[in-house]
Specification:
The chain is α/β, with parallel strands linked by helices. The chain is built from 16 helices and 13 strands. Keywords: Signal, Transport.
Length: 349
């Protein structure tokens, strides 16, 4: 992940922490022409006028139905938004992987999404629109989108986006679970079946990953995700941070009671604590993330006193791979975490 990429994610996460702590537009002309042709043929043949009228009536009904579905209404945090029923030129900020999972390639996305190791191979031909700032407006305009989907954050920018194309704002952290997220996106753009198909494959991969570590971890063993970010130390829950969905939600690895009580039950993504309180949240296994330019002394007495540290049960997370939290990333993280546990236990299945 580039420095700029980490800085961007850092900016988003810092903002989050502060909150925590305080079709197509077709006209149907071809169908109409077919109707006219069929009607003329029926009339010329004689004795089939009624059949022609019936077919013409059905065609007109279809045309009316298609016209009604040229757009759809999507409910958002900023009210209902009318969007194309089948958008063709989507620009996204924060949800590139969601569209790619549904078989849709947007025309534009920020560089920090294009560089994600989970979607890089799928991103050829997608234009880099830069950061979420004023410069992105001009780039979006040049791409002539018919739909913009963004994490938002700056309402002044959102207003400029709305002047370019219908804009759906889905704030960072809106979705905390893969199935809910994929179904929501499928419904939004008329890809419900594709969403269900993708989730079926996802569920099979999760099932296989869980089976691969069955028996390697004793029942009741606890896992926690923690680490320094900048000048603070954080504990993470089971949502958008540091592989939480893969570790706790999908693989079902048990969080500590304190993590469950102070974060998961309260739907808090991250919690800043003093290092003196690390032992209160530390599990039998720890997934450690060191990021945001943090300096962390792994030889400090507090850290070294933790059971997970003393028993070689600490997994260091690669930020490039465990900062992303989109459905494609979670799917891969499930497999990667299972592989970590197998390797640590000296067993592969």
């Amino acid at each position: 992940m580039t420095k700029l990429n980490r800085k961007f994610w850092g900016a988003i996460l810092i903002a989050l922490f502060l909150v925590v702590l305080s079709g197509c537009g077709g006209t149907g002309q071809s169908t109409h022409s077919e109707s006219a042709s069929n009607t003329a043929a029926a009339t010329n043949s004689g004795g089939t006028d009624q059949a022609a009228k019936d077919k013409s009536s059905r065609t007109e009904e279809k045309l009316a139905s298609d016209a009604e579905q040229d757009t759809r209404i999507v409910s958002t945090v900023h009210g209902d938004v009318e969007i194309p029923a089948h958008p063709q030129r989507i620009v996204t900020q924060g949800y590139l992987a969601n569209f790619l999972a549904l078989g849709i390639k947007p025309v534009g996305a920020p560089y920090w999404e294009l560089e994600s190791p989970y979607v890089k191979s799928l991103s050829a031909g997608i234009e880099d629109i830069g950061q979420i700032d004023g410069g992105s407006v001009e780039k979006m305009l040049s791409l002539n989108p018919d739909l913009i989907v963004t994490v938002g954050g700056d309402e002044k920018l959102n207003e400029q986006y709305r002047k370019i194309a219908p804009t759906i704002v889905i704030p960072y952290g809106t979705y905390h679970e893969v199935h809910v997220e994929m179904k929501a996106f499928g419904a939004m753009i008329g890809k419900e079946m594709e969403a269900e198909e993708w989730l079926a494959v996802f569920d099979q991969k999760v099932k296989k990953a869980k089976a691969s570590i069955q028996g390697l971890v004793k029942e009741g063993t606890t896992f926690s995700i923690m680490g320094p970010f900048g000048k603070d130390f954080y504990i993470y829950g089971d949502t958008v941070n540091r592989g939480g969905q893969a570790i706790h939600q999908q693989l079902g690895l048990t969080p500590t009671d304190k993590v469950r009580k102070d974060l998961i039950n309260k739907k808090i993504n991250a919690l800043s604590i003093s290092q003196e309180k690390m032992a209160d949240y530390a599990g039998d296994y720890i997934f450690l993330d060191i990021s945001g330019g943090a300096e962390f002394d792994e030889n400090s007495p507090i850290w070294a006193s933790l059971d997970a540290v003393k028993n070689n049960r600490v997994f260091k997370l690669d930020g490039d791979r465990f900062w992303p939290y989109d459905p494609i990333a979670v799917q891969s993280q499930v497999e990667e975490v299972a592989a970590m546990i197998q390797e640590r236990q000296g067993t592969t299945k």
